[in-house]
Amino acid sequence: MDRGISFRPLILFFAMVTVANAAEPARFSDAHATLGRKSAVSYDMGPVVPTGEEGAAEESEDSAGFYAVLNAMLLGKNRSILETQASVTNNLEGETDFYWGGFRVWSAKPEWRDGAFRVSAGLPTVSMRAPIAAFPVGPLTVRLDVGVAAEAEIEASLKPLISIPIQFTSIRAALTPKAAAAGFIEGYAKFIAVRGGVGGSVELIRTNASIEGDVSLGGMPPVFTFDGYVSLLAGRIYAFVDYFNVFRWNWRRVLQPTIADWKGKCIDLSKGAKLEGGDPCANVP
Amino acid sequence: MRERSLKARKYRKIGGLLVTGAVFAAGIGFVTELSPSAARVADTVRAPAATAPVSGVSGQVEAANEKSSAALSAGLWPRAGERWVYRFERRVSVEYRNRPWLSLKMGGRATVEPQGMHGGNRFYLLRFEADRLELQGKAKNEVRKFPALRVEIDPAGKVRELRLALSGVEQGAPAEELKDTAKDLASQWLFFSDETRLGKTVPIFEVLSEKDGRRAIAKRIGAYPNRPELSRLDSTHEWVSASEAARGREWVERIEGAENFLVPSANGDFEQKTSYRWLWLQTELAPRLAEVELGEPLRIAENSEQEQASESAKRRIERAEFRETWAKLSDLPSLKRLAFFDRARRALDVGQGELVAEILAGVRGRPSTSYEWRTGVGILASSASPEAQQALLGLYRESGRRLDEKLSILAGLAAGEGKPAAEWKDVLATELKDGAVALETSVQSSATGDKTPAATAFTPKASDPAIAIREAALYALGSAIRKETDEPKRRDLEKVLWREISDARTVTAQLSVLEAIGNSASREFYDHIRTQARSQEPRVRAKAVSAVRFLASELAKPVLDSARQDPSPLVQKAVEWSRKYQDSAAADESL
């Protein structure tokens, strides 16, 4: 899961390689330093392969499928947003796991429909506030209220391609987590005749990426491809300091630095071939 | 005529000399009337804000806090038909990185007069007018009127309410800056209040002297609890009254103070020095009560509470705007939708309860995968508002609620930041019980029926909704324990989870309760986690290791350290996973 890489050219290269070889999980990430701390996002997708581990209990089971993991860091505060897995056990039961904001929320058994297990889950939008941090803006120290809000819906299909013995069974799976996370920053301080603040929003991630392929229950290497897009870190954070101008009876702005202004980056996982309209990044608003 | 004018000027000069002497002599003496020009002379005797106030008359010091005199809690106020007239001066200077950065001065006239009574409460009007402004050493003579403030004093002598009086204000609603200045000046007058512009505090009062009809009271402020960023706070103030026994009159003659502090910053220290002074000029006749149009109630303090209140006003979402945004929610770009979510959650948090009905109307009838449902349930589940939490419970209990909708609400309960309504305990306990029955039936049928599907006709049976709900309820129960701050209520919730732990006989059941324990972040189940971390079953060991992710590091560390030796790749993965959360918590604490 940690085999990913962090910078744009490498990400693009890696994305191309993963699409071409379809053998390794992918990690898309980006990071910037702002307000003296790191803001970053990472998004992992890959296969769940059986561990082959023997359990003591009769009901011991292994599973095969796909996972997706989304983590975000805003001003040095790391938050797990989404961890999801859709897989089929070696008892041929479909299972899905959702961790939302670090909490296990449910593990619904997928519905069996048209020859495959299917899941369509919309997770309620979640917010994660981070402890208040202090940040100096010019002469003032502003207390920052930092929070992350995220939404996600997940679709998965898991079709067992059953063979005898069971070790030759593989799962034809597809997992599409459509997720978005944004960070919001607010801070304000006022000392009679001087005031200052920090504000802004950062779109940490917006993705409509899917992973699709075959994962074996018997130790054969998985074969899979990616599709869709991942858009990372775009937004603006600004600050201001005013002093009170008694002549004009208003606040005079003495400092208004734009602390961060990121255009973001979009990574096309489909290589423009699969989605109608070509490059999905071109259609990302 | 000319002779009278010269005479008046002569008297004014004498008065000026008297007040100058009075200030130099630290408030000794009694001055009947002062002219503005004389007061200006008096103003200049005080050094800029850097110094502490001029000390009052030395004498026997008595803890005024112990005095129950109404005068000490309310100050003095003019009698009916009187208007007290003062000359005020306000100074603010700021140093940044040990260099002068800002210097402001303002001088003018303030008046205090009665404005009637209602029941046992008395009303007074404070009016202010600046006529001398100074910025960075440059002076400007310009008259500027501020909105008047009406002060309501209860029978105990406490300030009950402060309201803006709109009459006499130039065109339209007064700007924030005018209101702020009026509040700033009013806070100086309200010497005995426990609230200043910097926040709520517990002032220490001392009677410096009480002699010959004069009282001098000192006030010292040691700290502002809501302003932890302030250091080296030096806040001393003085209030002096005078009286004329023959006419039974007592009035406030002088109020002054200095408040200096430092805010350390990585960019360089910010040091603010402020001072103020009110000097009584004269008592005028005010035979008629002023009629004023009243505006909004005000708070003096600029502490975080007040900032929050002022921010909350900005955060309000009007119904029309809410409905308009809601109608196009699914078409909005995700950033805008999330910004709306965040704004609505904050609006609920600061008491905009009417949004709850809007949200409920907006989610009913929508599929659980729709943006409307997910955003609405998310807002309710994430809000600290008890009204929102009750609404979430009500939504869950509504008849005809489908499985996917219930799972979504339980997911909101598990992941949302809001503290669940107390009634959830019984609801979750019932769901767990119903699910247990279904689970038992399912296990029995598995034991007797065909467990391995035929390769050619693989059709798994549909999963029991009660079992799915049971799992989700278990995870929500764990989160509810984590969010419950009331000790007895948390213990009740923990008891429900203990029942599930003792009933968990299969590996699957043990895994589920460990997930709930993980969500709970409660040390109550620590011994159980340690036991399960030694299980024969690798999946149980891995889940036990995962369950320490939100625990305090001194509890999590021994579990993670011993799991490092575990040969199971599943357990190693869980160690890595839990450590990720532990590292995040450590980073949060270090901020």
Structural features, described:
The complex is a heterodimer of chains A (285) and B (591). Chain A has 285 residues and is mainly beta. Chain A has one helix spanning 8-21, and strands at 26-34, 37-48, 63-74, 77-89, 94-100, 103-106, 111-113, 116-137, 140-161, 170-191, 194-216, 223-245, 250-255, 258-262, 265-268. Helix content of chain A is 5%, strand content 66%. In chain A, strands 7, 8, 9, 10, 11, 12, 13, 14 and 15 form a 9-stranded antiparallel beta sheet that branches. In chain A, strands 1-2-3-4-5-6 form a 6-stranded antiparallel beta sheet. Chain B is an alpha+beta fold and 591 residues long. In chain B, strand 2 and strand 3 (99-118) form a beta hairpin. In chain B, helix 11 runs parallel beside helix 13. The N and C termini of chain B lie far apart (73 Å). Chains A and B meet through strand 4, strand 5, strand 6, strand 8 and strand 9 of A and strand 2, strand 3, strand 4, helix 4 and strand 15 of B.
Short overview:
The complex is a heterodimer of chains A (about 280) and B (about 600). In chain A, strand 7 (about 110-115) and strand 8 (about 115-135) form a beta hairpin.
Q: Any descriptors?
A:
heterodimer; A: 285 residues; mainly beta; 6-stranded antiparallel beta sheet; elongated; disordered N terminus; B: 591 residues; alpha+beta; 14-stranded antiparallel beta sheet; two-stranded antiparallel sheet; 16 strands; 44% helix; 24% strand
